[in-house]
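Minutes, project check-in
Item: structure for the 246-residue chain
Input as provided by the requester:
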Amino acid sequence: MKIILKIIRLLLAILTSFFFAVFATFTMFFIRKQKIWEYCFSKWANISLRALGIQIEISGKENLHSPAIYIMNHKSVADIFILPAISPSKSTILAKKEIEYIPFLSSAMKKGGCIFIDRSNKEKAIESMRKGLEDLGKDYSILVFPEGTRSETEEILPFKKGPFHIALHSKLPIIPVGSYGLHKIGVGKNILLNPGKVFVHIGEKIETKNWCIENINNHIKEMEESVKKSIAQSKSVNDLRQTNTK
């Protein structure tokens, strides 16, 4: 019975994504595409999470800032809904190029300013990011999973350099976001998720105005530590809730 419920929830989330993708694709012919994207983005994410039976408890809301680069640890397919759900409406995603070939979804994402990158070609990826930034304008935030793939353990994977080239080029501040609780919901390539609660902490913004390419490896290490701190904060909220329910 549980597996059937998981499949039903997954199908509802897929249908939600399909509906918003089709809606956005066609309405963008008549209404300014940025307005439609801003209207649909967080609604799509929040409704999809409800369909999956996933709740989010957010701490650090006072640290929300726009425009900025939001970086979050990546453990589950649910992350593609969680980060947009907690971010400013004027946000777009840094996504792998493979998504560009999904009908309707890719069309809506392109019109919403999503930056697709070819992870197999470093130079092309950096060029795509720079062009994407120029097309977006100055008031959009960018959402990134800097590990590049999902981690199935409690440890975060080493961060890729790509997102931090965006910071070097744009000088946008970075907001470190950490989530905790997905190990109970489903991690890695598992798409049949359990319902449950995820705790998310939004860390304080980190300025990048004085960053330089020569120190990029040090900057990346600092960002890894900042995300680890946000994960620890979200875990402490989880532990507090567990204590209060005993």
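Outcome recorded: The helical segments are 2-27, 33-52, 79-86, 105-111, 122-136, 162-170, 216-245.
No further action items on this chain.
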